[in-house]
From TrEMBL:
<protein>
    <recommendedName>
        <fullName>BPL/LPL catalytic domain-containing protein</fullName>
    </recommendedName>
</protein>
<dbReference type="Pfam" id="PF16917">
    <property type="entry name" value="BPL_LplA_LipB_2"/>
</dbReference>
<feature type="domain" description="BPL/LPL catalytic">
    <location>
        <begin position="11"/>
        <end position="193"/>
    </location>
</feature>
<dbReference type="InterPro" id="IPR045864">
    <property type="entry name" value="aa-tRNA-synth_II/BPL/LPL"/>
</dbReference>
<dbReference type="InterPro" id="IPR004143">
    <property type="entry name" value="BPL_LPL_catalytic"/>
</dbReference>
Amino acid sequence: MSQSYNAALSLPPPFQLVTLREAGDAYAHAQSIAASDGAGTLVWARRFHMAEFALVLEPEETLATARRVVYAAGNALADALAIHAPPQQPIGFDWPGGLRVDGALVGGLRLAWPSDAAEDAVPDWLVLGCSVRMIVMRAGEPGFRPLLGGLDEQGFEELSPSVLIEGFSRYFLREMNEWNAEGFETVQKRWLQRAEDGTAVLLDEDRLAEALRIPAWLDPETGEPWL
């Protein structure tokens, strides 16, 4: 697997881009360099059918509360999609990280942290991973899998992985700035407006840790969203 530090995306500061070839694992690679490369490192696996990237973070909160960053990231991802969505196309979340468009699962978010990190201590790093299926490469007609799919089947034919990631980076900075200025409640309220089940489970920190450790939206055999 090769690695490049060439600027292939237009990212705002403080993001620093690392690109991998198509076969690379952005989520695993980001974890392997998190301690050395530090906060703002965004690892992008350049696949044409998937927007797949991972972001290194260095939180200032304890691990138990820092995991809530997945909700800020969900808001950012949804807003980055919404500006390219067909009119009235609903974008929603499965708790805590699944992403749905018009009810169909198209991707999700996950989170990693050091294996020796204590719940009541500030972790050295977090790695936020994101996978969004841009184009369905296999499986049958959408009608036979109405709850699973890709963005191409939802009217996003012109949206590229690079444009989606660039949009995410800008909206994510907005989310973090609002969190710092106004508190987590602002992030929480925005996320709940798109929650598919409508339940307020955000502050259940024990459940959140387990749900992020084994994401329900991720097919462990393919490493991609279920299809």
